[in-house]
Every structure is written in C-alpha cells, then in structure tokens.
Amino acid sequence: MYYRQMGEIPKKRHTIFRKEDGTLYREQVMGTKGFSGRQSILYHHYMPTEVAKAETSQSYMPVYEEDGVLRHRHFLTDEMKGKGDGLQAREYILGNEDLLIGTMNVDQPMDMFYRNGDGDEMLFVHRGSGKLETMFGTITYRPGDYLVIPIGTIYRIVPDDEENKMLFVESFSEITTPKRYRNEYGQLLEHSPFCERDFRGPEYLETYDEKGEFEVVTKTRGQLHSIVLNHHPLDVVGWDGYLYPFAFNIEDFEPITGRIHQPPPVHQTFEGHNFVVCSFVPRLYDYHPEAIPAPYYHSNVNSDELLYYVEGNFMSRKGINVGSITLHPSGIPHGPHPGKTEASIGKKETLELAVMIDTFRPLKVVKRAKEFEDEHYMYSWLEK
User: Fold this and answer.
1) Which residue in 16, 51, 85, 245 has the most C-beta neighbors within 10 A?
2) C-alpha span between 56 and 49 (Å, rounded)
3) Distance between CA 249 and CA 254 in Å, rounded?
4) Opening angle at CA 214, ends 146 and 233, nearest 5
C-alpha cells in the first residue's frame, strides 16, 4: 500500500497536538513486525487504553473432523441458512494453523465493534452492499469487493437492507499483494494484473467524540474477549501512514493470458504466510491453434486447493453451484470433469468468476461442514 493521510494531523509526529480546549489529542502508533513493518499513526480524542471492563467471552476455534480418507470435497454454502451480524453469522468451513475460512450471511449491522488481534482479515463480498466502518474511516462495498482489514483494526460491518453473502479469511499473518508484482520501492510494476488506481482506501473519516460504554470484541489467543471502552472507539480525528484497510474489486483484476494454458499463479491476487488468494475472472482463452483451454490434470504439489464459485459457468467443472466450495487436497491429482477437456477446444473465452485459495499446509474440515456436503463429489470423475 502507498502513503495516505486523512483528517487532521500535526506537522511533525510525536509532537504536541492540542484540541480547541487546550487538551491533547492522543497519538497511537499502529504497526506490524514491531516497528519495522508497515505502520500508521492515529490521533484520538481519548486514550485508546481507557478500558472500563475486560473479560474473556468464549473460544472461537472451530472443531475439526478426525482425519479420514483422503478425498476431494464439495460444500454447498448456499444451503447454510444461519444469519446475523458480521461476527455472529460466521460459519467456519476449513482451517489450519495459518488461516480460517468460511462464509457468512450478514443481514443486520453489528451493535458492537470488533478487531482481530491475531492477523489480517479478508472479506470477499459475493452478494449485497453496505459500509465497512473502521477507525481509519469508512469504505462502501459492493459485490466483487475484496475487503482487506489489517490486524488490530477496530471495525464493524453495516449492510444495506438486503442480505450480504461473504466469503471470509481470518489470517494469522499479514495479507499483501504478491512480492513479484512490486519493485524495491513497493510500487506495483507494469506486468502486475492491477495497479494502485484499483485499490480503494477509506473514503471518509467520521469522528465520534462520545463518552459511554462501547464493546469491542477482540479476537486473539483462541478466545473472543469482551473489551468495553469508556468512549466511542471511532474517535480518530486524523491519521497517516501505510497501514489501513482497503477494497479491491475482482472486476479490476486484469487476467494474464497466453498462447497455451497458463498456470494458476497468473491469477494470484494476494498472499499471506503459507497461502495465496487467486481471482478467476472472465478472460480470453489460449490462442495457440491447437491449444486446450481447459486445465491439464495436475497434482497439487505441497498445497491444498480451495475454490469458491461466484458466478458463471466454470469451464472445468459440472455439478457445481453458485456459492459452492470445492477442496482438492494435496496427495491426489485433480482436473477437468469428463467431457470438459474436449468441450473447451475451440472456445474463445470463459465467463467464470471464482476465488481460489491455495494453502501450503493441509486444510482441516470443520465438523459442521458435513451437514451441507455433496458426498458424491469424489466419484464425479467416473465416466458413465
């Protein structure tokens, strides 16, 4: 991310910055990797440490299945009918030591605030629109938006009237753009499938100068902690730096194509520790006269592959629904369903839209996910 500034800040950092009544604004340095990673400096009406009450609420870690037979899996997330706010509605489906993955149907605004103290979060908006209100300002979102929220950011999700469907990733690390697309100064390079113009930071900064009791549910160390501040948590009057939430819409991903089938890394959009996120978007097919546009059968080398199907006709699969999640684990090969390779020959384009997450440690399946699983998916490659 590049440098941004919003609201009021003093000329020099770590210097006196007074309100109209002569009292001090409270400076907070918020950074990653100690003091050597990305950081921003925020100025609050009140001390961010003014806590009226703190108590551990509950564990958030999902319960996983026992290890079973190695097989491809298919989960029908649109069959999950649970709803709620942007925290209560979360349904975990898969996870490991590096990240937790799930979907949520958000139909009401949060009446509290939330922050993840373990790592960054990524929300992919499948359906619906609304506002992401944060201590750095507000981002309005729409279908196709990736919302990346840095560790420690206080925020809440405020959907519009319609129900919002989101895919979420709770990372235990930082989520960034791929290093190979950035130069030594951090600027996105010409061969990158996106540029700085495509990323949207907070659009406006709304400051609340209020006293009272405001709950900030804080996720860390395997627990949800209830932290009650004695002032409104969105009390920031200004900030600057390189650390802040941002949105990137999947429609702005410019696909990389070639004469023959390109490997999955050309679709990469983000990366975290031991995982990558890729965007499959409408694109022209390969243009070699004898090209086979469908992907070749391949073994995942040291990675599990998850695909979340957003819309369109996914060219290598059949029997897949909008909102489906497929898991193709390492150790066994996968590829196009019967007939899909032949059907792709001569086709000029695909209109598929999907999000892929490859993890470099095995994913575990949450027990509850079995309730909406297609048990026959492993055998769907048998030719009839």
Assistant:
1) 245
2) 17
3) 11
4) 55
Output the average pLDDT for the chain: 95
Bridge partner residues of 54 (DSSP): 227
Phi, psi dihedrals of residue 343, rounded to the nearest 5°: -65, -25
Q: Are 264 and 358 in contact (CB under 8 A)?
A: yes
Domain presence at residue 278: yes
Beta carbons of 131 and 158 less than 8 angstroms apart? yes
Q: Tell me the backbone φ, ψ of residue 380, rounded to 5 degrees.
A: -80, 0
Judged by DSSP in three states, 85 sits in coil
**CA angle (52 as vertex; 51, 53 as ends), nearest 5:** 95
pLDDT on residue 334: 93
Contact at 8 Å (CB) between 232 and 112? no
Q: pTM of the prediction?
A: 0.96
- Residue 68 in any domain: the answer is no
Task: Name residues of the chain where pLDDT drops below 70.
Answer: 315-316
Pairing between strand 113-116 and 99-106?
Answer: unpaired
The CATH number covering residue 174 comes to 2.60.120.10
158 assigned to some structural domain: yes
Confidence (pLDDT) at 383: 83
Examine the domain organization and report whether 101 and 225 are in the same domain: yes
Residue pair 9/17 in contact by the 8 Å Cβ criterion: yes
Count of domains for the chain: 2
Which residues span the domain enclosing 212?
49-63+81-235+244-249
Going by the DSSP 8-state scheme, the letter that residue 279 receives in this structure is E
The pLDDT tens digits for 320-357 are 899 999 999 999 999 999 999 999 999 999 999 999 99
Cβ of 257: how many Cβ atoms within 10 Å? 16
Residue owning tokens 């079973």: 68
Same domain, 157 and 205: yes
pLDDT at 273: 97
Which residues, at least 6 apart from 375, have a Cβ–Cβ distance to it below 8 Å? none
Residues 227 and 265 reside in one and the same domain? no
What pLDDT score does 316 carry?
65
